[in-house]
Write a structure and sequence with these properties.
21 helices, globular, GGT_ssub_C, 3-stranded mixed β-sheet, 13-stranded antiparallel β-sheet, GGT_peptidase, 592 residues, alpha+beta, Glutathione hydrolase proenzyme, zymogen, 33% helix
Length: 592
């Protein structure tokens, strides 16, 4: 059924041109797969993907298009990403065959300490921390765009952001996902004057099929285009941002306790988005590159793949393949929770976590006949011993799942995998007054208190510190040539989602769009494994239970976008067929 659907989508694929500013936009189609020449774009939103394709068609490269798509997602997918947040940018240069990364993760203000979320000796309630100025980290997204365009782009920031400004000004058609996201957050959005004015006009979420415009965001983008990102980090936009953090625009009479943050203009001014060496492992005949700490994506996905490399997954039964995938997730998350944090504050053993020797010492804990139970203890990557553990088990803290990922390839073979976020759906809930964008709540990714009492926790807050992330933008090469690039939203489940799609595609030979659409499960060193209803309905679920796996049902896990190079030189872009309403793949010159 899936293959026939994909085939019909390919046959009917059309590139939809941007409408003039005076036209009334109709909802563009959501197409999960596109094949063609000249480059491809895959994102969660059709307007954003179309903007990316237009940039490529006009001679821009993958970096130019990625920034343009990201800016557009700040308009159409503002509850997942935007200039009030941060992310991680992974770039493949086809000429040099080099993979590079930009760390655009948010930072805590200089005043933050380990007790940032502690009051009267106890952690404050998580929901109260989220909807507050206290949770807002210094945003990294504008600086990421500047860094990427300077290093590898061919367009200016002015050129790359202009299409998103036009989109914000003329508006787009509200779909069911946008309407649901506002409705689900209506109670807290209503408690902020600026947020309710933008997203609850007349007191209700914008209707499906209506046109949504954000002139304040359009004006903010225009300011960035004219004055550069200094307008954000040292100018009027930044001053308005800091004021919203320090004195949230709360509606008079609200009963919600909204704590103020302590971000300063100096915190904004000192923010940098550094280049970092990517993580790299050898998996089968592939080189897999990812994001290094403070993201845990590259180390944790890399360790899980190294553990799985000890087994011929292509030859395993479907049950044994899934069993080993789940167990690898359990073990790699045990090590992530113990060892990974901001490398500027913690001695993160990145090289050792990614060594095959360490993975082998963990893989021997996997039994083909029985699942591990509960939370397992970490290993010691600096002194790996077969089947040995070191320290107490640590469960995985909660992370917000409403991130977004985009993947772009251009005519020259350059590729970008870019994951960006404001953390929770709707971030902190605070729209900067007069500026049209939501602020993140990324600092809630820190541990509020040590996860395991008496055990060092590398992810406690600190001044200028970057909270640990699970974002996993990933690029796979073979002999220096691009094979596959992908990523996903989903909080901590991002890591397992990427590993599941990679192993289905590379080991099991599943076509890319089918590997993305396949039912998912996510084991993150917990007693129960999160699983989608479709996964639990599969024939493999009962045999997995017989092995000792325990499951908790969840609606959706992740929302992948990906691109791959085909042997004849065409590109394939792939996205979700149904998760989050389906993704949007586009090709410059479609050639099914």
């Amino acid at each position: 059924m899936l293959r026939s659907t994909v085939a019909s989508v390919l046959a009917s694929l059309l590139v939809v041109p941007l409408l003039p500013a005076t036209a009334v936009a109709q909802a563009p189609p959501r197409v999960p797969v596109a094949v063609g020449f000249g480059g491809v774009v895959s994102s969660v939103d059709p307007d954003a993907s179309q903007i990316g394709v237009d940039v490529l068609r006009r001679g821009g490269n993958a970096v130019d298009a990625a920034v343009a798509v990201a800016a557009a997602l700040g308009v159409t997918d503002p509850f997942s990403a935007g200039i009030g947040g941060g992310g991680f940018f992974v770039h493949y240069d086809a000429r040099t065959r080099r993979v590079s990364t930009v760390d655009g993760r948010e930072t805590a203000p200089a005043s933050a300490d380990a007790d940032l979320f502690v009051e009267d000796g106890a952690p404050i309630p998580f929901a109260e921390a989220v909807t507050s100025g206290l949770s807002v980290g210094v945003p990294g997204t504008p600086r990421t765009w500047q860094q990427a365009l300077r290093r590898w782009g061919s367009w200016s920031l002015d050129q790359a952001v202009r299409p998103a400004e036009e989109l914000a000004r003329r508006g787009f058609t509200v779909d069911a996902t946008f309407h649901r996201q506002v409705s689900d957050n209506a109670a807290r959005f209503a408690d902020f004057t600026s947020t309710s004015a933008l997203y609850l006009p007349g007191g209700a979420a914008p209707a499906v099929g209506s046109t949504f415009r954000n002139p304040d965001l359009a004006d903010t983008y225009r300011a960035l285009r004219r004055h550069g990102v200094s307008e954000f980090y040292r100018g009027e936009v930044g001053r308005d941002l800091v004021a919203a953090v320090r004195q949230p625009p709360v509606v008079a009479g609200t009963t919600r306790e909204v704590r103020s943050g302590d971000m300063t203009e100096a915190d904004l001014a000192r923010y940098e988005a550094p280049l970092r060496e990517p993580t790299r492992i050898r998996y089968r005949d592939y080189d897999v590159f990812g994001m290094a700490p403070p993201s845990s994506g590259g180390t944790t996905a890399g360790e899980a793949l190294n553990i799985l490399e000890t087994t011929d997954l292509a030859a395993e039964t479907p049950v044994q393949y899934l069993h080993r995938f789940l167990e690898a997730g359990r073990l790699s998350f045990a090590d992530r929770n113990r060892w990974v944090g901001d490398p500027a504050f913690s001695d993160v053993p990145t090289r050792e976590l990614l060594s095959q020797r360490f993975a082998d010492s963990r893989a021997c804990l996997i039994s083909p006949t029985a699942a591990m139970t509960g939370t397992v203890a970490p290993g010691d990557p600096r002194d790996p011993k077969p089947c040995a553990v070191a320290g107490e088990p640590a469960a995985t803290p909660y992370e917000g799942t409403d991130t977004t990922h985009l993947t772009v390839a251009d005519r020259w073979g350059n590729v970008v995998a870019y994951t960006l976020t404001i953390e929770q759906e709707g971030g902190s809930g605070i729209v900067v007054p007069g500026r049209g964008f939501l602020l993140n709540n990324e600092l809630t990714d820190f541990s509020f208190t040590p996860v395991t009492p008496g055990v060092p926790d590398p992810n406690l807050p600190g001044p200028g510190k970057r909270p640990r992330s699970s974002m996993t933008p990933t690029i796979v090469l073979q002999h220096g040539q691009l094979v596959l690039a992908l990523g996903s939203p989903g909080g901590a489940s991002i890591i397992t989602t990427v590993v599941q799609v990679l192993t289905r595609r590379l080991d099991r030979g599943t076509p890319l769009v089918e590997a993305i659409a396949a039912p998912r499960a996510s084991q993150r060193n917990a007693t129960n494994t999160q699983a989608e209803a479709a996964f639990l309905a599969n024939a493999e679920a009962e045999p997995l239970r017989a092995l000792g796996h325990r499951f908790t049902s969840t609606n959706e896990i992740g929302a992948v976008t990906a691109v791959e190079r085909l042997p004849d030189g065409r590109w394939r872009a792939a996205a979700e067929t149904s998760r989050r309403g389906g993704g949007a793949a586009r090709a410059v010159w479609p050639a099914p």
